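Troubleshooting entry. The earlier prediction with zinc ion gave an output that would not parse, so I re-checked the input for stray whitespace and re-submitted. Clean input:
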Amino acid sequence: MGDYQSAKEEVRRAADIVELVGQFVQLKKAGQNYVGLCPFHSEKDPSFTVSPSRQMFHCFGCKKGGDVFSFWMDYHKVDFPQALKDLADRYQVSLPEKPLTPFEREKIELKDLLFKLNGMAAEYFHRILTRSEKGGPGRTYFDKRSIPKETILEFSLGYAPDEWDGLVRFLQRKKIDLRKAAEAGLLIPRKNGGYYDRFRGRIIFPILNLRQQIVGFGGRVLDDSLPKYVNTPETPIFHKGESLYGLHVAYKPIRDSGRAVVVEGYTDVLALKRHGFDQAVATLGTALTREHVRRLKGYAKEAVVVFDADSAGKAAAIKSLSSFMNEGLSSRVMVLPEGNDPDSYVNKNGLNSFLALLDASLPMFEYFLDLKLSQTGDEVEGQVSALNEIIPVLGELSNASQQSLYVRRLSEKLGVAESAVLEELGKWQKHHSWKGNEGDLRERLSASKAKNIDDFHLLNLFIHYPQTVERLMDLDCKALLSDPVVRGIFDALIEIHGREGKLAPADILERLPGDPARERFREAMLSSPIYPHDMVEQALDEFEAKIQKIKLAESNIKAIQEGDLEGSNKILELKRKREFL
Ligand SMILES: [Zn+2]
């Protein structure tokens, strides 16, 4: 257990939270800290803060926060033992065997096993493609598309031969429990016992997470037969609606350029990559979900959704508009000429032509507007129905200047007065006022701070000058605290201080009772000091005077209640003297 604790400490020393979080969230320097858009809740203004000096993060919006371990756990949705294992691997810290609960062990072991089985299967598919006679059709497929060896290697591409038990036999030779391979989604149970291969006669696209582990597979037919794609079903490690194909390779270029290009197919990603464009990711045959957008938001400043002008994907792209708006990620629409996908287009016309279309992409909202208006005639009825569809989308725009711009554009295009559009918008907004807006939240936050100003100042003083703890305890500073959460924090401080003497804020954080206390403490840790060094003594004196005053007032009330007028007079005398001092 001691070794385990020290491994944890070692990881903490080796890891830099700004570097680690920065791999997944775009961070900007802001004073001593870094800020970015929170990956854990929807927001348009960054309230997600990372402190290099404290080695912690905190979101002022949703209150999630903690150290490198908490970040890893929340971001990758893993538990603590898994986070420790991942980070220890990452920073080359050796880990002692840790006693786990049977449930924890089972969960970790199952996931590890599924990753391992996926890894083995990927190797099998890859070897068939690159070295086996059976891989001929797969090689022809990639040759035709001029996908080079390096790409095949970088994306671990493979081929599943057209047979029922190729993988079954391979796994049997490796003494793998086939039930587990079925849990990984690689095999399918036969009705009369036994198993058969899920992927047959298909090109195999392994899907990797950002920890570079294979979570699942996409399989595509070679011809036009159906179904065109077969994916791994939902498993403990594979969630289709969250995964983006190619992100494990594209996330760095996307972060550097600020732009992600979202395409529909695996081969689109590969074709663009072959032509030197490395910012593309693909959804796995699903519509773009809010989880996708949230994930992209960590790397990209804007996303460009690409689709074919005649495809059904058009409707899906439009559907994703509200996900983008709600997540606050700016989005554009890039339209390819009818009958094209990015794969065929870039191969036919070259990258420059693709980039020109990319430059000509329209903001998604504008595209939506044009599309809706083009579907309505000049008839009043058509206009009304277009308005009814557009107003709710307009109403969700949080950027006021953008909103007024679109109101004007809409009124021009419909040929109605701007005031009429505004009136409609006003009516809609009355019924759908924004809730959970970060701006409101911040106001509430600062209001609550203003109300409990002493709580706020005392906590800040202690965090930035822990040596003041003795004096704060002597002063009985709790008399000044009105917020029960902060009182709880000081109770814990007094308790820990009484037992151990020395207090370092970072050590205390983990030992505080309850999330609200930890949240409040973290926020104080991330705030700048209110008092400069040379004001600390003076601040303590002022707090002392304030406390004395409160105490005198209390004893005065008590004296009066007990009918002790002489005592009360004495107290009042004392009080006056103090005030003159
Ligand atoms: Zn948040």
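This one parsed fine. The chain is about 55% helix and 10% strand.
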